Amino acid sequence: MNILNKEVFSEDDILEIINSRLEESINIEFKNANALSNDKNVKKEISKDITAFANSDGGIIFYGIDEKDHVANGLSFINGNIFTKEWLENTIISTIQQKIDNLRIFPVRFEDDFLKTIYVVKIPKSPNNPHINGDKKFYKRHNFQSVPMEEYEVRNSYLKERESLVYIEKVISEFIEENDTQYIFKIEVQIVNDGKFVSEKYKIGCDIKNACGLGIKYSEDNYSVTTKEPDGFKISTIKMVPLFPRELMNAMSFDIEIPKKEFDTIIENIKFIFFVFSKDTLQQDEMEVGKMLKELMEKI
């Protein structure tokens, strides 16, 4: 059972965790019933653990599972009538700055009894880190523990460029014209910023393979083309336009020229691999542009 990828939790899942003697890790922690309380120091501890996961690689905290030597050891039920899901949500929200998006809480009621509650708190790796806890400190995960972040780690988190969430939304093909020897099509690439911050550092491109006989027309002011022997080339942007949150934009446009006599052979074998470079990531998607061009010609 891959706990970290689960979206629903049941009594059987909790019992399997205990029976299999699942170990705590940088992504998993077990807390007994005493970990939830109205005591302000306990609430600070809750926020410390939650922020540590969000400031690191994300993970899951199980409130209501006892541990011994960092191994799941038994049930330690939460009184769900006193410490409700809403209580836990409000505690997390009120003791952590800034809010952790997409954090989820799953109550598991054994025998449908609120007195026998386990809370599974699934914490994402936050693109908005670092988050500060109720004690006005920054924490991270290290092995089985939540430990204070070093000053340089906090500084680097603040200074780093926010995680880029720019991705390719759609590739559009359009028949432009034909002459005595070739068909001409326009290819447009639309991108979207699915993040919460303006993205200014990204690069869009297309790696075209098995392109022998293909011609390409593009704006030299906006794109560069690199020939890739023996039968391909790469086109990529040389200008970056700030992309605002939720903004959809046409980021790339170029024409391709396909000889009529070789049309069927070329579109059967050609590959278009589109990519987005950001500061720390490379996303690649192969699009069936050849199939799109064939369907366009069938409609003419």
TrEMBL record:
Domain Schlafen AlbA-2: 24-149
Statement: the UniProt record of this protein carries the keyword Zinc-finger: no
Domain of life per record: Bacteria
Pfam families for this protein: SLFN_AlbA_2
InterPro entries in the record: Schlafen_AlbA_2_dom, Schlafen_AlbA_2_dom_sf
Keyword DNA-binding set for record: yes
Sections of the chain in a coiled coil: none
Gene3D superfamilies reported in the protein's UniProt record: Schlafen, AAA domain
Segment forming the signal sequence: none
GO molecular function per UniProt: DNA binding
Entry keywords, A to Z: DNA-binding
Protein name: Putative DNA-binding protein
UniProt organism field: Flavobacterium dankookense
